[in-house]
Hints:
By secondary structure, chain A is mostly beta strands. Chain A is built from no helices and 9 strands. Chain A is 0% helix and 46% strand. In chain B, a hairpin with a 6-residue loop joins strand 7 and strand 8. Chains A and B meet through strand 3 and strand 4 of A and strand 4, strand 5 and strand 10 of B.
Amino acid sequence: xxxxxxxxxxxxxxxxxxxxxxxxxxxxxxxxxxxxxxxxxxxxxxxxxxxxxxxxxxxxxxxxxxxxxxxxxxxxxxxxxxxxxxxxxxxxxxxxxxxxxxxxxxxxxxxxxx
Amino acid sequence: xxxxxxxxxxxxxxxxxxxxxxxxxxxxxxxxxxxxxxxxxxxxxxxxxxxxxxxxxxxxxxxxxxxxxxxxxxxxxxxxxxxxxxxxxxxxxxxxxxxxxxxxxxxxxxxxxxx
Lengths: 114, 115
């Protein structure tokens, strides 16, 4: 079972920031938080990941709370092309052979409106 | 930058037929994953390879499913005696060993419809 909880849907106005929350209250100290998105009928697209520090790249920012029990993905200026299902996933950090799979929930369906 | 490619993109088959899908990972990525996604659900893990070795298989991967990765390059996923319940999007992802943290990059998927 997925170890994360996300709201099923959200709306955002074009040009505004989209803040997508994720709850991962049972996260372990060695688990990373990953975010992917999936635009209709396409393969998932990697966005960003982090362990405990906030992260930023050209697509988004990831804010992880100090207790690591929740995080927020921020799309600073949402466009219509950001309309997609956004998945928050926790995965154990391992150098071993197993536990590398991603376990997906249902994600948040983000609608960016003009 | 060449991403993960999958072939075919769409496949329609009749129940009982065999189908084979191909995945070409990003160059130099030593890990390759297969996932399956049905409508309205998140992807589900099927199996994963490190180089040519198949290291993990899901219980979803029944004996009608087989995956190979000869020479650690491209991979094939074969479904024998297809059933209507096999209708889904089959996704391939690849990654490169970066120690404790790795990122899986996905292909466009192969959409299978079993009639």
